[in-house]
Amino acid sequence: MRHKARYRSRGDGFEFEVPLHLTGFFYPVYRESWELTGSLGAGLVIRPGLKCVVSEGEGVWFNSEPISWGPALEIYNEMGGGSSVHLSGNCLPGAGYAFSAASGLAVAACYALAGKMSAGEAAMKAHVSEVRCKTGLGDVLAIWDGVGLVLRKRPGGPGVGEVENIRISDKIAIVTSELGRLSTESLLTTHHEKIMEAGERSYREFLKNPSLANFLEISNRFSKELGLVDRSVEEIVRPVSPRLLGWYVKKRVLVMVVEEAEIEEVAVNIGASLPIVRVFKPGEVEWRRYLETILDTSPS
């Protein structure tokens, strides 16, 4: 069987890619089970994401370093190991790229490909593990069901929660840089009341006009209300602000959305203040289609 480049067979293993996710605003919804718990909000699914290569050996790795904690390792241990899962990507774990969700989905997908669970079961397992580890609430759902700008309309894991994909131009880019690290658990604990109040208000406002421009405006205000934006961040963004469609801060990731023609100018200017600048495009659904196609065509 021939597979497309982004999702192909490697002898006894597989290679595929899982997108990342940059939430703009949200608020938690806690229910009686991990499957039903989640969040309502909106964010950008982006690529390139995490490339996953499965081969002989043991352990879970990211950019050649062992992963020692989080959903990816929890799922790997629950399923009994049995192979080596190598993840790589252009992101910083713990900064706000939804690394825990993407890595958990990647590892769970490996076991789906091995015939140990269905694709839907793998997606829900990644969500449950993320909620249990307190590393996220809605990122798995957004990545699994989302393309581009994603509105989470019903909380819960894949198969329970619901999203709406809002069409945005494929001629835009997402330029990011890191301001540090901040755990999801710390964010939820430190800013709980502000997140609940500002998040619900932001969500309801966005429903009145679900567009990229409104998303960026609301996300900017949400990150400021949470105290994620200070004077130093404002100073970094000010020189390039006329070239931006909008910007916000997700945990400690500075997110700037631009037209493709503005990428270089924005990246150079931001690079004068921050050491690492990354460029992404809106995410697509092909990665999941590849997974489901291989599962559908694999011999039982």
Descriptive account of the structure:
This protein is α+β, with helices and mostly antiparallel strands and 300 residues long. Helix 1 crosses helix 3. The N terminus is likely disordered. Strands 1, 2, 3, 4, 5, 6, 7, 8, 9, 10, 11 and 12 form a 12-stranded mixed β-sheet that branches. The chain has 2 domains: 172 residues, 2-Layer Sandwich (Ribosomal Protein S5, domain 2), CATH 3.30.230; 110 residues, Alpha-Beta Plaits. The protein has 10 helices and 12 strands. The radius of gyration is 18 Å and the shape is globular.
Salient structural properties:
37% helix; 300 residues; 10 helices; Alpha-Beta Plaits; alpha+beta; disordered N terminus; Ribosomal Protein S5, domain 2
